[in-house]
UniProtKB/TrEMBL annotation:
InterPro entries: TPR-like_helical_dom_sf, TPR_2, TPR_rpt. It comes from Streptomyces thermolilacinus SPC6. SMART domains: TPR. It holds the Pfam family TPR_19. Keywords: Repeat, TPR repeat. This is Uncharacterized protein.
Length: 129
């Protein structure tokens, strides 16, 4: 990419945030692909791409991206919460429960605490990553 530079990547990252907020997760993923190709170590971009995959109902790519973030930052409560929501939506409540609890232990936000205490499988509704 001839015009690929750090400034372009920051612009693409910010534009991807706006696309996700505007409910265009696939557009966000496309922008983030180039940012991550140039900066594969960028955890913030990977976390945003995981959220975009989740919003686009691409659960397996979302799961893999959240897991990659957690390999690098095992104490990232938000990534645990996002992974838990992804696993819950994919119909894997037992795996989700572990990550909900880790998120709540790492950061006792009310939404994390509430999700960590769920006793019955839900239909996947609730706060999104």
């Amino acid at each position: 990419m001839p015009d690929s530079n750090p400034e372009t990547h920051v612009i693409d990252y910010r534009a991807a945030e706006q696309l996700l907020a505007a409910r265009d997760p696939r557009g966000a993923v496309k922008l983030l692909d180039s940012v991550i190709a140039a900066h594969p170590e960028n955890t913030a971009a990977r976390l945003l791409r995981a959220r975009a995959f989740f919003a686009a109902a691409q659960l397996r790519p979302a799961e893999l991206e959240f897991e990659l973030v957690l390999e690098r930052e095992p104490d990232n409560a938000y990534a645990h919460f996002g992974l838990a929501r992804t696993l819950q939506r994919a119909g894997r409540p037992q795996h989700a429960r572990r990550h909900f609890r880790l998120a709540a232990a790492l950061d006792p936000k009310p939404e994390y605490l509430e999700a960590a205490r769920f006793d019955t499988p839900t239909d996947g509704d609730g706060p999104t990553p």
